[in-house]
Write a structure and sequence with these properties.
Blueprint (H helix, E strand, L loop, with lengths): L9 H9 L5 H19 L2 E3 L2 H10 L12 E5 L26 H8 L3 E6 L33 H9 L4 E6 L5 H7 L2 E4 L19 E6 L2 H11 L29 E5 L9 H16 L3 E5 L7 H16 L16 H12 L2 H14 L4 H25 L2 E5 L15 H5 L6 H6 L3 E8 L5 E7 L5 H15 L9
Parallel strand pairs: 2-3, 2-4, 7-8, 7-9
Antiparallel strand pairs: 1-3, 4-6, 5-6, 5-10, 9-11, 10-11
Helix pairs in contact: 5-6, 7-15, 9-11, 9-12
Bound molecules: glutamine (GLN).
Length: 481
């Protein structure tokens, strides 16, 4: 029996445990050792305590029948776990311990998951590189000089490096799919409303979704099965039956119609990325799918629209962090206390977004910017609705390039914002998307492929992704640490 359980997927570990070939104690020991061995280089996990592991093992003792019994899961630092510090990677929340569990955490606990390690992230999930965390940047496990993507960079890097068997991320404009792509793992953003946001610290409430980051598509279905579903505590979650996603894991795409949007293969996209995505579509064609070029004409407005709506919502969501109820408080009279706390507590990208958001919501600009952006958002959604009348899914690159160098874009917000050009439209339209590994650059950096489908059709994503994974044989590759 192997001892290096950090190498295995959750479904493999589940089998070992149910055959009595190992125990959660051995599995968590392997992951804990791995964190201690590699995390000083990767910095994917920002807090890890062996005492928490013991407590988790005690808590899950009687959960043997659970779907995630004994599986170590890393949780992004913006999802509340009762009694454990949650900071969104920000100084302003240092020391804040929420008094309740997010709904997704309640579900993980019920199924016997071991909550082990907090995953690093861009401060308040504003970013595409995981460089703005107050805990310092996360390094891409494939090349430590490069970013892992963001904002769920810690979750993706942790899974790629074996510091977690699976992880939870959140995706507002691409923060699950883009880091999954850059780290060579699988990441799924569910349909808006499929997974409860209760207990997720809000960034842009009309766009945020929690989702799985895993080593393969089977694990992705497994974790989605656990977290999906209606929650009366989140009024935007949808009361619709959740299918058994493991049933979508069929190696068959015969008859599937794929749309390839011409607006996603524009100038600026890396040649190796483009080739790899096109070759992947051809592989799916050989397996029985059909593809055709389609047009999503409002794509070019997506980034601009997002950078009005997302900061607008963020500026209002972050107003609550004022030194009174949460985390950091700097001294002064009332006004100075607000000012000092927010000046010291927030990093510069957070301040930029608050200023941007407050501006577009202010009287006189509200109609010109915010309302206009809402109108364009509808157009973007209509583009997708139209395509999905005739097509089962859309395939695009997840990101225009493979992982870029640490420091390369951090002082150039526009170029950073453009790294989400292919992921943002799905959030604006509320549709589900998955990123799966589809190749490697000559420099041995992972490339990701994005599949999009109509609302509440995660099953199609999983079916196409699973078929691709089985036939491309790319998913077992892990970085050499
Ligand atoms: N990179 C995008 C942003 O900075 C998306 C982030 C996210 O999905 N949380 O807003």
């Amino acid at each position: 029996m192997p001892e290096d359980f950090y190498r295995f997927t959750a479904h493999e570990i589940k089998r070992f445990i149910s055959n009595d070939e190992t125990t959660p104690v051995e599995v968590t020991a392997s992951i804990s050792d791995r964190i201690e061995e590699v995390n000083s280089r990767v910095n994917a996990i920002i807090s890890f305590d062996r005492n928490d592991v013991k407590e988790e093992l005690r808590r899950t003792k009687d959960k043997r029948a659970g779907k995630l019994f004994g599986i170590p899961v890393a949780v992004k630092d913006n999802i509340c776990i009762e009694g454990r510090q949650v900071t969104c990677g920000s100084r302003i929340l240092k020391g804040f311990r929420p008094p309740y569990d997010a709904t997704v955490i309640e579900k993980l606990k019920k199924e016997g998951a071991i909550l082990l390690g907090r995953a690093n992230m861009d401060e308040f999930a504003f970013g595409s590189s995981c460089e703005t965390s107050s805990y310092g940047p996360t390094n891409n496990p494939w090349d430590f000089d490069r970013i892992p993507g963001g904002s769920s960079g810690g979750s993706a890097a942790a899974v790629a490096a074996g510091e977690a068997t699976m992880a939870l991320g959140s995706d507002t404009g691409g923060s699950i799919r883009q880091p999954a792509s850059l780290c060579g793992v699988v990441g799924l953003k569910p349909t808006y409303g499929r997974v409860s946001r209760y207990g997720l610290i809000a960034f842009a409430s009309s766009l945020d979704q929690i989702g799985p980051i895993t080593k393969d598509v089977r694990d992705c279905a497994l974790l989605l099965n656990v977290i999906a579903g209606y929650d009366p505590k989140d009024s935007t979650s949808v009361d619709m039956k959740v299918p058994d996603y493991s049933k979508s894991l069929v190696n068959d795409v015969k008859g599937i119609k794929i749309g390839i949007p011409r607006e996603y293969f524009i100038e600026g996209i890396d040649r190796e990325v483009k080739e790899s995505v096109i070759n992947s579509v051809k592989l799916l064609e050989r397996l029985g799918a059909k593809y055709e070029e389609v047009s999503l004409p409002h794509t070019e407005y997506a980034v601009g629209t997002y950078y009005i709506i997302a900061p607008a919502e963020a500026s209002s969501n972050l107003a609550r962090f004022d030194g009174v109820q949460y985390g950091l408080r700097k001294p002064g009279n009332l006004i100075d206390m607000y000012k000092n706390t927010r000046s010291v507590g927030f990093g510069s990208e957070v301040k930029r977004r608050i200023i941007l958001g407050t501006y577009v919501l202010s009287s006189g600009y509200y109609d010109a910017y915010y309302l206009k952006a809402l109108g364009v958002r509808t157009k973007i959604k209509e583009d997708f609705d139209k395509i999905f009348k005739d097509f089962d899914c859309i395939i695009t690159p997840t990101a225009p390039t493979a992982a870029f160098k640490i420091g390369e874009k951090v002082d150039d917000p526009i170029s950073m914002y453009l790294s989400d050009i292919f992921t943002i439209p799905a959030n604006l339209a509320g549709i589900p998307g998955i990123s799966i590994p589809c190749g490697f650059t000559k420099g041995d950096l992972p490339i990701g492929l994005q599949i999009l489908a109509k609302p509440f059709n995660e099953e199609t994503l999983l079916r196409v992704a699973y078929t691709f994974e089985k036939n491309s044989k790319l998913c077992g590759r892990r970085p050499n640490l």
